[in-house]
Amino acid sequence: MSEISHHDAVIIGAGPAGSAAATVLAEHGRRVLVLEREKFPRYHIGESLLPFTYGPLERLGLIGRMKDSAFQKKYSVIFVQPNGRASQPFYFFNRYDRATVAQTWQVLRAEFDQMVMENARAKGATVLEEVTVTELLREGKRVVGVRARHRDGTVCEHRAPITLDCTGKEAFGALRQGWRVKDPFLNKVAVWTYYKGSKRECGVDEGQTTVAFVPEKGWFWHIPLHDNLVSVGVVAEGKYLSRDGVRDPQAMFQREVGQNLWIQDQLSVGAQTGPYHVTSEFSFHARHCASEGLLLAGDAFAFLDPVFSSGLMLALKSGVLAGDAVHAGLAANDLSPARFADYAAGLRRGIENMRKLVYAFYQPDFSFKKVIDKYPDAAGDITDCLSGDVDKDFTPLWQKFREFVPLPDDLPLGAPREQEIIS
């Protein structure tokens, strides 16, 4: 017989979304249990924070910790052509307060995620590591908790009126509900590694994110981290990276270094360190945000191609919003899926704005410079979207973009399942 525990909310996954939701719920006085499969600290990619991560971090009480940390400060993003010619930096402080939103960070995720998780614990959430959730518990169609295997082999049932799927790209609940939808266009392959002691800029530009192009709309990320470490990865279509029969990630990476003179120069000193990593098929969405007893947050809800570093911002933002939405539902004694319609609509609005920016980026003849040359006032809106200010109405900007490239319609996804059935 399984042991049984009862909570106000059970959260699967202690990454940024899960820990953010747990922190908010615990601050509201809710009994929240977080179940994490791994032992922190653990490695994770996705190391660049957008300026509009500031709001969620402030809500979680972490701004002071971030300012006192060793994390590399970030003020801008630049774009570099294969011949090494760099754009003017998009400085966030040209639009925002330099002491707050305009200064963000590049982070080692093992350190950052542990800090966010420990913050949830400090606020009163129970976080259990090395616990594998094996199934969603149901009563009829309603999810009523999870069954999980703990580190000592004990199998337990953890029950709650609401379960939050914050399992990242694994999307534990979303996959079991059959909700995952691939983006029709944004399916790329990434190969990345780290360099120690390579070149980096000085002063205010030291922490800038660089997007460096290679042929066929592929690109490198170059993210300076603390301790003289740099994260460097290349993203492109799989058929491009594996051309001529190349399959080895290291061979793919090293060949592409020669396709961009700026990247080649940056990596001409220092040494590569650690393994080469590879992953594929970046972008996907959930057909629904919620069903009876289940709510999705973070990458389990949607994950976009990482070219504009939106992942951490959207994960933290959705975790905070989910925590508040669940608390409000508990207070009203109403956790019906329809209660989360506004939560989903807000997230989808931001995702679709960023998605349009990503789609434009991958069009062969598109560049921000072309848009800005014709419409100088568009530079501000582009910087806003690049900064993560994705709740804005960017309709005028997209009208300008459509003069240069086609943009996708919004995907009709994300509504609570109950809402779809009723309509």
What does this structure look like?
The chain is an alpha/beta fold. It has helices at 16-27, 54-59, 63-68, 109-122, 172-176, 238-241, 249-257, 261-266, 311-331, 341-362, 368-374, 378-386, 395-401, 417-422, and strands at 3-6, 9-12, 32-35, 72-74, 76-80, 90-91, 104-106, 126-128, 132-139, 142-149, 155-159, 163-165, 180-182, 189-196, 209-214, 218-224, 229-236, 271-280, 284-286, 290-291, 294-296, 302-303. It has 14 helices and 22 strands. Strands 6-5-15-16-17-14-18 form a 7-stranded mixed β-sheet. Strands 8-3-2-12-21-20 form a 6-stranded mixed β-sheet. It has a 4-stranded mixed β-sheet with strand order 1-11-10-9, with no helix packed on it. The relative contact order is 0.16. Mean pLDDT is 94; it is low at 419-423.
- Helix percent reads 25-40%
Strand order of the largest sheet: 6-5-15-16-17-14-18
State Rg.
21 Å
CATH structural class of the largest domain: Alpha Beta
What is the percentage of strand-forming residues? 15-25%
Sheet of most strands: 7 strands, mixed
Protein topology:
Blueprint: E1 3-6, E2 9-12, H1 16-27, E3 32-35, H2 54-59, H3 63-68, E4 72-74, E5 76-80, E6 90-91, E7 104-106, H4 109-122, E8 126-128, E9 132-139, E10 142-149, E11 155-159, E12 163-165, H5 172-176, E13 180-182, E14 189-196, E15 209-214, E16 218-224, E17 229-236, H6 238-241, H7 249-257, H8 261-266, E18 271-280, E19 284-286, E20 290-291, E21 294-296, E22 302-303, H9 311-331, H10 341-362, H11 368-374, H12 378-386, H13 395-401, H14 417-422
Parallel strand pairs: 1-11, 2-3, 2-12, 3-8, 5-15, 12-21
Antiparallel strand pairs: 4-7, 5-6, 9-10, 10-11, 13-19, 14-17, 14-18, 15-16, 16-17, 19-22, 20-21
